[in-house]
Design brief:
The chain is α+β, with helices and mostly antiparallel strands. The longest helix has 25 residues. It has 20 helices and 19 strands. The two termini are 16 Å apart. The structure holds adenosine-5'-diphosphate (ADP) and magnesium ion. The site of magnesium ion has 2 residues, from loops. Adenosine-5'-diphosphate binds next to α4, α15 and β16.
Length: 545
């Protein structure tokens, strides 16, 4: 393949434009392909002079590296949307889009018009959507745990994957959705010290008064979102200069706060969690009454606390009644490393939960917490949708087989596009095998033969490095995530194939081209662009010339 040359400095036309754009996507896909699947490798990204991130999570890699090519950026956007929408399949989107465009490029070089390829891809995508619905499996008991484990497999050890998967499944069953699960991470301990709280965790910092109780059993919790303080409405300076006025104000303040604390006590509350400040004197009065007070609780945590404890957030002590109090069987201070946290546990029928992720290093704990957040959003969708798919490439092999059977019914040249789509789908099992050090050239024909014989859930089980009925061995994937991944990869490929001219808008500053090494022979471009690119950057400028 020849690197396309621009017609002039600010216009790239026709095939050159398409081929240039295709190459930009393929470079990103080449970068991510080695991370696909449980045996995928990690990328080490230098994010600052001393900071390093190590991850194989597609969304994390793409958000950290500096990608400038406009079309490659669109791919990044598509991958991010995949992550926020479905929580899984970011690497698959990128790899699949790259492969769809690689196949399109081969057809372009053979002389097929881009519009014909687009037509073929569209026909194929419609079929794929239909097949996916047909091939989906109903989610039965235990399958949710298998699906969660598959998503974590390879990212952490197998034992840990199952342990964390169970936590995520329990959390989603309690909370229903990602928004109702607070995931915190703290370095230290091991991944197996990660735990689920059927209630909430509050980050404490400096917020507890020394004389407060540290532990309250049978907590009746008041949730407040206004400041618990009394201010002098007059000029503070005058107040300071006039000792009599100052004394009077202090007495007044003390009286008001005392009344407020008495009202809280009368309501039966023994824990007060406040979004704003609780002034020291109020803290003191609360402590005197044996009431635990926490100030500066974040708004989102306060809302989750309301869901977890069944309480209602109030803005004025006058609004407190028995029904506004939340309940937790235990509120207790704890320590993680040097930081204080507060556990609110044993809630009755909680609608929110918290997960505290521990890990050997900040990097591990952070990555796992992001993975758990994605996992929870995927699980929430699967719980609603109740369908999943066989993983390990089984579904892609089956889709490809069905497309190849269907293709001859398509008249004319778009048929070639349908065949190309089928070939592109097989990139997933191919890289899964490749990344595990297995030979795709042997395995893919074996898999195709199994599927031809009607064994539709045969795929790669990379735990045992064998071809197996992955439905039985529990390698499962989410239907919404898979569908979204294939649809957005294909839409992106279509969009790129339809751009026949790249024009720099007038007034757009052209970046002065840094001295570049000559572009390598095309077959070597993945190596030329390989990680670690300096400063975490992939330079697409040479593709943009
Ligand atoms: P993505 O970002 O696209 O989710 P992953 O790195 O999470 O990429 O890899 C997902 C792929 O790995 C899926 O195709 C899934 O079926 C496959 N996979 C996960 N666990 C296994 C396993 N134990 N054996 C075979 N394939 C697996
Ligand atoms: Mg995944």
């Amino acid at each position: 393949m020849k690197i396309p040359q621009p017609l002039s400095e600010d216009r790239i036309k026709g095939k050159s434009a398409i081929l240039g754009n295709i190459m930009a996507v393929r470079v990103v896909a080449e970068t991510l392909k080695t991370t696909l699947g449980p045996k995928g490798m990690d990328k080490m990204i230098l994010t600052g002079s001393k900071e390093v991130a190590i991850t194989d999570r597609g969304a994390s890699i793409l958000s950290l590296i500096d990608i400038r090519h406009p079309v490659a950026r669109m791919l990044v956007e598509a991958a991010k949307a995949q992550d926020t929408e479905t929580g899984d399949g970011t690497t698959s989107v990128v790899v699949l889009a790259g492969e769809l465009l690689k196949k399109a490029e081969e057809l372009l070089v053979q002389g097929l018009h881009p519009a014909t390829i687009v037509e073929g891809y569209r026909i194929a995508l419609d079929e794929v959507k239909r097949y996916l619905e047909e091939a989906s499996l109903p989610v039965e008991d235990g399958m949710l745990l298998d699906l969660a484990t598959t998503m974590l497999m390879g990212k952490v050890g197998e034992d840990e994957a199952r342990y964390l998967a169970k936590i995520a499944v329990d959390a989603v069953k309690i909370a229903g959705d990602k928004d109702n699960v607070k995931v915190l991470h703290r370095p230290g301990g091991s991944l197996k010290d990660t735990h689920l709280v059927r209630g909430m965790i509050i980050d404490l910092g400096k917020r507890v008064h020394p004389s407060m109780p540290k532990r309250v059993k049978g907590a009746r919790i008041l949730l407040v979102d206004t400041e618990f303080a009394v201010h002098d409405v007059n000029n503070a300076k005058v107040e300071l200069m006039d000792p009599a006025r100052m004394r009077a104000f202090k007495e007044y303040k003390s009286k008001v706060l005392r009344v407020a604390v008495n009202m809280i006590k009368a309501s039966g509350a023994n824990v007060v969690l406040c979004q704003k400040n609780i002034e020291d004197l109020a803290m003191f009065f609360l402590a005197q009454e044996g009431i635990l007070g926490v100030r500066d609780v974040e708004r989102d945590v306060l809302e989750l606390l309301a869901k977890a404890t069944g309480g209602r957030i109030v803005s004025n002590v006058r609004d407190i009644d028995h029904g506004s109090l939340g309940y937790a069987s235990l509120v207790e201070e704890g320590k993680i490393g040097l930081e204080e946290i507060m556990y609110v546990t044993g809630c009755r029928n909680p609608k929110a939960a918290a997960i505290l992720v521990r890990g050997g290093s900040e990097n591990t704990a952070l990555e796992v917490s992001k993975r758990l957040e994605s996992l929870i959003s995927t699980l929430a969708r699967v719980l609603r949708d109740k369908r999943c798919l066989p993983g390990g490439g089984a579904c892609e092999i089956e889709l490809a087989r069905r497309l190849r059977t269907f293709a001859p019914s398509v008249n004319g040249k778009p048929q070639l596009g349908v065949f190309a789509f089928a070939d592109a789908l097989e990139v997933i099992p191919r890289y899964l095998a490749d990344n595990a050090g297995m030979d795709p050239l042997t395995l893919l024909p074996m898999l195709r033969a199994k599927h031809e014989a009607g064994r539709v859930s045969y795929g790669l089980d990379l735990r045992d490095r064998e071809i197996k009925d992955v439905r039985k061995t529990g390698i499962l994937e989410s239907l919404p995530a898979k569908k979204h991944a294939i649809v957005s990869a294909s839409e992106l490929a279509e969009m790129i194939l339809k751009i026949d001219e790249v024009i720099l808008a007038r007034g757009l500053e052209k970046e002065s081209p840094a001295p570049q090494p000559p572009v390598q022979a095309p077959s070597a471009f993945p190596e030329a662009m390989d990680f670690p690119a300096k400063g975490g950057k992939i330079d697409f400028k040479q593709l943009m010339m």
